[in-house]
């Protein structure tokens, strides 16, 4: 088995094929959103563009979000409309699948660029990289950070290529596409400007020469052109000229909106990482990251990860997703570590542990990221003709005080249940297990659907955390 890991006798296409299957599974099953921003900062404005009346997130009231990502999805959706695909669940699935494929291609592109440089052209590295559960999960997200990171990877690899290329015509093509990708990555997620800045810093510290300097200047001019062009898109989105970049700066650093979401200590990202990202393999990942930084301190990936994590640690508010531009390289760090060291006796054990837990985490790819969306889906396919839908405790149509109208606009309206009498054929939706028990005792009410299997209610921890949603039909 050890020799199998470090040989290269399996064609890469088989690992790519398996990775594509995982990405399709994640796009199909992980309905909803990992973070509410994933929906309300991207799908929310898409709803507006589609003519669905809704309320946008506060970021759009402060005019600090770009409309480029929603317009990209709008273009895809209009194509689907022209093909008579109007089902909102199919539309969102296709949007997720398109985004997922972009992300997977970026990882494949990065692997082909570094596999010989990092000595990771082996079966083990291909297993870790192409079948990593987190890639399938993250790439299926409609979040701005997901698409932004994918474009950052394309832009970074192309930047490295044009710096190293001796073919002048190729340099111009590479720097142009790199500039477009890096510019769009910033537009989609303004915080990515940190990573892009350190790409340029990497050039000045490790690759500087006057011949390449003029090409880097052209590359940066293209980035600026992309940033300015995004303001044209924002003009159509907001309906008037808006300097979105300045508004973002003013809201977060003058009005202190960013700090208002939390003030955590500098080490808090480490806590979030150890608790929430791939335990216990995250310990191996952390060791691998440090090992890579020490061995490849002049590499471009070191420059866009090490300084960025330091700066993120100095900011007041911290979330695990802020680390995604660093964690996106986690399989590469692990592969590099296992492929370039023999300094410990438990190498085979740690490899098997990593791969085993990676398989265990595949379960995440089969469960909804937001359970409420499964409720909408059931109502859409089964209860479209139902005139009365009630919620018993929590309102499934409301998340973070906003309503995901792309789904709820297509299903019956909902109201609070209040001991309704003399009603026929109505639906009650509940979340709390105690509510579930009470509704069961209502005459002629029958459980028709629950997001998760009922047997999980046997576990007290599960019942108390209110993960599930229950749909009853009453006659």
Secondary-structure topology with pairs:
Elements lengths: L1 H4 L6 H18 L6 H14 L8 H4 L6 H15 L5 H27 L8 H8 L2 H7 L4 H21 L3 H21 L4 H15 L2 H29 L5 H11 L2 H4 L7 H9 L4 H15 L4 H4 L2 H9 L9 H4 L2 H10 L7 H14 L10 H12 L5 E4 L13 H4 L5 E3 L9 E5 L2 H8 L4 E6 L9 H6 L4 E5 L1
Parallel strand pairs: 1-2, 1-3
Antiparallel strand pairs: 3-5, 4-5
Characteristic terms for this protein:
single chain; 475 residues; mainly alpha; 2 domains; five-stranded mixed sheet; 25 helices; 5 strands; 62% helix; 5% strand
What is the CA-based Rg, rounded?
A: 24 Å
Q: State the helicity in percent bands.
A: 55-70%
Strand % is under 5%
Strand order of the largest sheet: 2-1-3-5-4
Mean pLDDT: 93
**Total helical segments:** 25
What's the total count of β strands?
5
Based on secondary structure, the structural category is mainly alpha
Q: What is the chain-wise order of helices and strands?
A: HHHHHHHHHHHHHHHHHHHHHHEHEEHEHE
Weakly predicted, low-confidence segments: none
What does this protein look like?
The chain has 25 helices and five strands. The protein has two domains: 2-366, no CATH class; 371-474. The longest helix is centred in the middle third of the chain and has 29 residues, at 210-238. α2 runs antiparallel to α6, α3 crosses α5 (68-82) and α10 (168-188) runs parallel beside α12. By secondary structure, the protein is mainly alpha-helical. It has a five-stranded mixed sheet with strand order 2-1-3-5-4, with helices on one face.
């Amino acid at each position: 088995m050890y020799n199998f890991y470090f040989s290269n006798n399996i064609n890469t296409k088989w690992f790519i094929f398996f990775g594509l299957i995982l990405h399709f599974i994640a796009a199909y099953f992980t309905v909803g959103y990992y973070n509410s921003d994933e929906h309300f900062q991207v799908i929310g404005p898409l709803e507006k563009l589609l003519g669905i009346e809704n309320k946008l997130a506060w970021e759009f009231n402060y005019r600090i979000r770009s409309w480029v990502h929603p317009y990209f999805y709008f273009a895809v959706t209009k194509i689907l409309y022209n093909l008579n695909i109007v089902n909102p669940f199919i539309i969102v699935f296709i949007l997720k699948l398109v985004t997922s494929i972009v992300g997977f291609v970026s990882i494949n592109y990065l692997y082909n660029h570094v596999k010989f440089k990092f000595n990771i052209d082996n079966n083990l590295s291909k297993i870790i990289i192409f079948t990593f559960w987190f890639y399938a999960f993250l790439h299926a997200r409609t979040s701005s950070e997901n698409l932004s990171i994918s474009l950052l990877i394309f832009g970074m690899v192309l930047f490295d290529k044009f710096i190293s290329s001796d073919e002048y015509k190729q340099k111009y093509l590479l720097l142009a596409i790199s500039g477009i990708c890096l510019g769009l990555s910033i537009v989609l997620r303004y915080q990515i400007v940190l990573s892009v800045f350190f790409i340029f810093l990497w050039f000045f510290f490790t690759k500087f020469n006057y011949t390449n300097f003029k090409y880097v200047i052209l590359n940066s001019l293209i980035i600026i052109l992309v940033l300015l062009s995004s303001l044209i898109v924002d003009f159509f989105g907001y309906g008037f000229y808006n300097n979105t970049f300045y508004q973002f700066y003013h809201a977060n650093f003058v009005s202190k909106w960013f700090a208002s979401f939390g003030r955590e200590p500098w080490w808090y990202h480490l806590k979030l990482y150890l608790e929430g990202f791939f335990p216990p393999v995250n310990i191996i990942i952390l060791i691998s990251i440090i090992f890579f930084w020490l061995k490849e301190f002049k590499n471009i990936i070191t420059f866009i990860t090490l300084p960025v994590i330091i700066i993120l640690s100095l900011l007041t508010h911290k979330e695990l997703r802020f680390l995604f531009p660093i964690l996106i390289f986690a399989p590469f760090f692990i592969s590099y570590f296992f492929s370039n060291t023999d300094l410990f006796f438990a190498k085979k054990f740690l490899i098997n542990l990593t791969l085993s837990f990676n398989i265990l985490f595949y379960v995440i790819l089969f469960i909804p990221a937001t359970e409420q969306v499964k409720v909408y889906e059931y109502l859409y396919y089964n209860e479209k003709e139902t005139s009365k839908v009630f919620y018993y405790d929590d309102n499934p149509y409301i998340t973070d005080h906003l309503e995901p109208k792309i789904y709820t606009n297509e299903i019956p309206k909902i109201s609070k249940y209040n001991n309704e009498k003399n009603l026929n054929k109505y639906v009650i939706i509940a979340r709390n297990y105690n509510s579930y028990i009470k509704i069961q005792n209502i005459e002629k009410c029958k459980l028709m659907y629950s997001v998760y299997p009922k047997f999980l209610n046997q576990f007290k921890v599960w019942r108390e955390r209110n993960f599930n949603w229950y749909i009853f039909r009453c006659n």
